[in-house]
Design a protein that fits this description.
With 191 residues, this protein is an alpha/beta fold. The protein contains five helices and nine strands; from the N terminus they run ββαβαβαβαβαβββ.
Length: 191
């Protein structure tokens, strides 16, 4: 049976610093660890502040809520799993986060419906579905959901090699921590 388990993650910076978030028991869910999030948000610096942020595989919500805590203008969280989405709804309500939009559904169905362009995007699908990294990025480009210079965070298993599929993307930062590779790519449209 799916339930909220006792594991938690915490927001490490900004207005909600130190707040703990429950992690729902959802297959494939692996919240980004504190150490990696700290590096990620150091890399992003002020890119998050006043940005439109999209978390394509929200899970526990820690990346999107971290961005909101650090001053993002608007955060969109997409979660396909019902239990995960209910947990996100509870956390957004708990923080009274009026700048967070929640979508429940398959990210591939939701992206075409989004009305904004985004400056910061988190793409860290379940490791069992690695093809979703490129599929999601291609869909964001095709539906014009990226602002020029958008920063895209990508995460994948440490044992795998990953290369960017689009010539309009270039690596900004890359690192490995334990069994996780993570990086930021920047999108610069060619035309």
């Amino acid at each position: 049976m799916n339930s909220i388990k006792s594991t938690q993650v915490r927001i490490i910076g900004g207005h909600w610093r130190g707040s703990k978030l429950p992690v729902p028991t959802v297959s494939g869910l692996r919240p980004t660890p504190d150490r990696i999030r700290e590096t990620l948000f150091n890399w992003l610096g002020n890119d998050c502040r006043l940005a439109n942020v999209l978390d394509c595989f929200a899970g526990s919500g820690v990346l999107g809520l971290e961005a909101a805590s650090r001053g993002a203008r608007q955060v969109t969280l997409i979660e396909s799993h019902q239990l995960g989405w209910q947990n996100l709804r509870t956390q957004v309500s708990r923080f009274d986060a009026k700048n967070i939009d929640l979508w429940q559904g398959d990210v591939l169905d939701v992206i075409p419906q989004l009305a904004r362009q985004y400056q910061v995007i988190f793409v860290d699908p379940p490791y069992a579905l690695p093809e979703l990294r490129d599929t999601v990025v291609d869909l964001l480009i095709a539906h014009k959901k990226l602002s020029a210079g958008a920063k895209i965070y990508l995460e994948w298993p440490g044992r795998e090699q990953y290369d960017l599929a689009s010539a309009e993307l270039s690596w900004v930062k890359q690192k490995k921590a334990g069994q996780v590779n993570y990086a930021i790519a920047e999108w610069q449209p060619s035309g």
